[in-house]
Each structure stands twice: as structure tokens, then as C-alpha cells.
Amino acid sequence: MAERTGLSVHALRYYEREGLLVGPVQRTAGGRRRYTTVDVDWLLICVKLRESGMPLSDLKRFAELVRRGPGNEAERLQLLDIHRQRVDAQIQALEECRSVIVWKVGVYAGHLARGEAGGLWDPRA
Questions:
Q1: What is the CA radius of gyration of the chain?
Q2: pTM (2 d.p.)
Q3: Pair 76, 65: CB distance under 8 Å
Q4: 66-120 pLDDT per residue, tens
Q5: Beta strand segments in 2-92, E
Q6: Which of 36, 58, 92, 113 has its CA at 20 to 30 Å from residue 47's CA atom?
Q7: In whole angstroms, what is the distance from residue 17 CA to residue 59 CA?
């Protein structure tokens, strides 16, 4: 499971303890965890939501709503839509940062190509 999800064994146990899984984890007769395809698919979604910055409290709420079953889809949608808006804002901010970097790279490249790099942002000047 750790290999398939990219989570460490420690992180998998944490997700389980925090109630982030949608169902109880099955166990073998020897007590080893046996994850289902549903568990894997769910954890892959959780990983992407966390990687994209979803707060743990929102992820817990989302898992709770999924565990409750049908009837709360509008609330699930609202959680996901708010998160999508946050991600869109992060993407926009990163695109603006990238534009500044691209512009600055062009400035430096142009000065270097013309042999005029001396004194660029020289704090002693």
C-alpha cells in the first residue's frame, strides 16, 4: 500500500488513526492490514488533496461525509469547490511569480549577451 500511494507506513497509520479512511481496514487472521482497491483509490485521492494543500480538517470532514453515504453530496461538492478555488488562486500566484522570473532571466541574459552585466543589482553601486 505504501508503494502504491506514495505514503510511508507511518503516514498510512496516521491516516487510519485520524479517521481519514472511508471504511475500516480489513485484517488477516494474523492481524496484518489488508487494503482493498477502494482503500487504494481513496488514499490516492487523499494524497492529491493533501499535496494540493487541502487542510487536514477539510480532508477529515470530506472523509466523514463520504463514510456517511448518500445524501450529503452538495456538502462534499462545496468542500471540493472551495479547495479548487484555493488551488486556482495558488496557480495564478505562481504564474505571476513565473512571469517575473522569466522577465528577470531575460534581463540578465540580454545584459550578459551584450557584455553589459557589470553592475546589475550591485549593492555597492
A1: 23
A2: 0.81
A3: yes
A4: 999 999 999 999 999 999 999 999 999 999 999 999 999 999 999 999 998 887 8
A5: 26-27, 33-34
A6: 92
A7: 14
Residue 66, C-alpha cell as written in the block: 463520504
Give the orientation angle of helix 56-68 with respect to helix 73-113, to 10 degrees: 150
What pLDDT digit, counting tens, does each position of 7-41 carry?
899 999 999 999 999 988 899 999 999 999 999 99
**Torsion sign across C-alpha atoms 22, 26, 31, 34:** negative
> Distances in Å between the alpha carbon of 46 and those of 58, 63, 116, 124?
11, 9, 51, 50
Cβ contact 96:87 at 8 Å: no
Amino acid at the residue 79 = L
In this structure, the number of other CB atoms found within 10 A of the CB of residue 41 comes to 13
Nearest 10 degrees: CA dihedral of 35, 37, 15, 48?
A: 150
C-alpha cell at 118: 557589470
Helix 37-51 vs helix 9-17: angle between axes, to the nearest 10 degrees?
Answer: 90
The C-alpha atoms of residue 52 and residue 9 are separated, in whole angstroms, by 21
